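Let's practice the habit of predicting before peeking. Look at the sequence and jot down your guess about where helices and strands might fall. Then scroll down.
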Amino acid sequence: MIIEIHLLQSFPVSNLNRDDVGQPKTATFGGYTRARISSQCQKRAARLLFTKYGLDEAETAVRTKRLVEKTAEALAARGRGPEQARDVARVAVRALGFGVDGKDLTQYLLFVGRQAIELLADFCDREWDKLVKAAGDKKKAEKVKPDKETLAEARRILDATRVADVALFGRMIADNKDFNVDAASQVAHAISTHAVANDFDFYTAVDDLKPDAEAGADMIGTVDFNTACYYRYANLNLDQLVENLGEDKDLAARAARAWLYAFVHAVPSGKQNSMAALTLPSAMLGVVRERGAWNLANAFLKPVDGKRADGDVLAASLEELMRHFNQLRGFYGDGQLRTVVAASVTGHVPYAGEGETAATFEEFAGRLLAATGA
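Done guessing? Here is the structure:
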């Protein structure tokens, strides 16, 4: 069973997700430049809200290169000498099959449950003498291929069957595919429903303590921005989620609820202190289906610019979204659809079927989750 959510969210002046030169990310779609927010950016914003919507912190993950540092701190808190604790933690991480650089950072970010640090510290305590000896042997202190016993420890330390965001968004570990987790959720890059052109703000700042007789600015610069109405899409395979969480249906239900609420309320943090583009979605379409998935981005293959005489981009976007959805239903059939719910802050959803609208977000979310049994 799959939950899909389609959101329309308009942002004023903003730079929510920057590229390598500081400009808002864009993409060419349908021959026009569109504003874009990456999948990764949206997922991080959602992950940070999971504990707000029903998950315990211990059921969430961290993405880090600092396993050595944090494990050493845990060992020091248990009474081990700080310097030796760091040496042991470094050797332990390498023994598990992960490379560590000269700054004690792993070669890449590892997506692990919050309990992984304490479990790694437990491993270090149990194998302390062996690891201390290995720390003094340069050859043995390098990254190694774990033996059968150490691999079993690694599986226990990296176990993600109680970690909701790893179960949702998956994990890929290049050094050992046994630790990989297939994502239960897919998140599309958000794109604007209309064409955009990035702009820039030329700013100046004045030294408050400068004498009045001295004129001119003391700092000048530019900040890039755009304004856009975005189409956002994500889906969640509930069967995959339950499997990833070790068949724990209660945790899967809470994770599904947290995913839905967090994804709707997630707002990227880029440049928010200077732009405060803190808006919420204005319209949404939710679907619970038995199989398949429909990204509705092609509703905006032709930009919505100028499609309404009143210039209401959001209303035009909602009309195109619902029209395209119904076109797909008519062409491919809707036998696989279990529930369809749409909602808008205006209370009006064009082309919605009878009984397919919700008055509030709480009703929208409740009907979707009820259809899944979550």
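How did you do? The mean pLDDT is 91.
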